[in-house]
Design goal:
6% of the residues lie in helices and 42% in strands. With 262 residues, it is mostly beta strands. The longest helix has 17 residues. The chain starts with a helix and ends with a strand.
């Protein structure tokens, strides 16, 4: 019994040093969607821009410096590569000094009859990833409603490239205050890491590498179908790249899985 007690204490200390509590493995239902990015082409379940501009886009309200282009999204060696690098694009009356890549499982356009490629209500999302480093890089994994409204929004992960061990998770409700948390983790640019979101009625639970990091409860938790986005932004909250920022920068993803709620 003493040996068991000592072992349990050591486990508890190691968990506390990691910055969180062990995530209880919640029950999941049927596997709804999986992409392990085999082959050399992107699955038809993904688009490479936001619905409002399927051939090239950005988010102007975030003061981002990149223009997303299909050419910056590649699949090779079992990995999705979202690549950002210096480029020159003039669009919407602005000059964008970088090009980058993103994927979206939402609608291919803004017509009501357009159906989302992959969307779901409740369940578990799991993404295995590796982020780039360098000031100005801003990789993110997030979700939006299929109605194409800007809210609610669930941010599974946002990381500034100059703080690769300080990811943020957030929930932006349709009304009310944003809930957000930054946590200290391992360096997410080194090796592969897994972010998981468990979504149930009135409950959101975020985990990184199997450790629960954030939890939101209450009636504001979405109860409508949502879709998934992954992108490598430049600028915005991550600041402007410097001469020391390594380019091309690559946000790597080698697995996306979505399970239904049981």
């Amino acid at each position: 019994m003493r040996r068991l007690g000592l072992w349990a204490a050591l486990v508890l200390v190691s968990v506390l040093l990691a910055g969180g509590c062990p995530a209880e493995p919640p029950a999941v239902g049927k596997l709804r969607f999986a992409d392990e990015f085999s082959g050399t082409t992107l699955s038809g379940k993904w688009g490479t821009c936001h619905w409002w501009a399927p051939d090239g886009c950005t988010i102007l309200t975030n003061d981002e410096l990149e223009w997303y282009q299909r050419s910056q999204v590649t699949v090779r060696d079992g990995m999705l590569r979202l690549t950002a690098q210096p480029g020159s694009v003039d669009a919407h009356g602005r000059h964008f000094p970088y090009v980058s890549g993103m994927i979206s499982s939402g609608r291919p356009g803004d017509r009501p009859q357009d159906k989302p490629r992959v969307a779901f209500t409740y369940g578990r999302v799991e993404v295995r990833f590796r982020i780039p480093t360098g000031k100005g890089t801003w990789p993110a994994i997030w979700m939006l409603p299929v109605t194409n409204k800007p809210l609610p929004e669930i941010d599974l992960l946002e990381v500034r490239g100059d703080a690769p061990d300080l990811p943020a998770m957030a929930f932006h409700p349709a009304s009310g205050a944003r809930k957000r948390r930054e946590v200290r983790t391992a360096n997410l640019s080194t090796g592969w890491h897994i972010v998981t979101l468990d979504w149930a009625p009135k409950l959101l639970v975020w985990s990184i590498d199997g450790v629960e990091r954030f939890r939101v409860t209450g009636a504001a938790v979405p109860s409508e179908p949502m879709y998934l986005i992954a992108n490598l932004a430049i600028g915005g909250d991550a600041g402007t790249p410097t001469a020391a920022t390594p380019f091309p920068a690559r946000f790597l993803i080698d697995r996306v899985k979505i399970w239904d709620r049981p």
